Hints:
By secondary structure, the chain is an alpha+beta fold. The protein contains 3 helices and 5 strands. The chain has helices at 55-69, 72-77, 110-114, and strands at 6-12, 26-32, 37-41, 82-90, 93-100. It starts with 5 loop residues before the first strand and ends in a 16-residue tail after the last helix.
Amino acid sequence: MKSDVINIHRQSADEANGDKDENLKHYVTLTCEDGCKFVMPEDDCIFLPIVHATVEELAIYIWGEIIVGLDPELLLKRGIHTMEVIVAEAPGQEAVFRYEIPEKAARFDVASFILGNADELEPKPCSEVG
């Protein structure tokens, strides 16, 4: 949804004719910066608040969604201090995002996080060696 190289436009099948019937099939048109266009049914799409659909951005986004869905307080009480998400696009091509469990659940603004407008990462081992 936040792409800086692709324009995303949602429309109904008859929008060009002025018909705004909500029951009509809706489509998404992606227009790339080189002018290429791709049209697909909206039902086949999911709109994510990321800039590029890279495995790195997807790993960060998924990590944030998991934290929002879980109870960070319970995880911390159980001794879980770090969570890791791995997203692979092909064998041997993957991104790993590992981050400390926050005290309160909050979604990441992935673009801000990647651009460095978020807290610095402080890598920690999965278990403390005593």
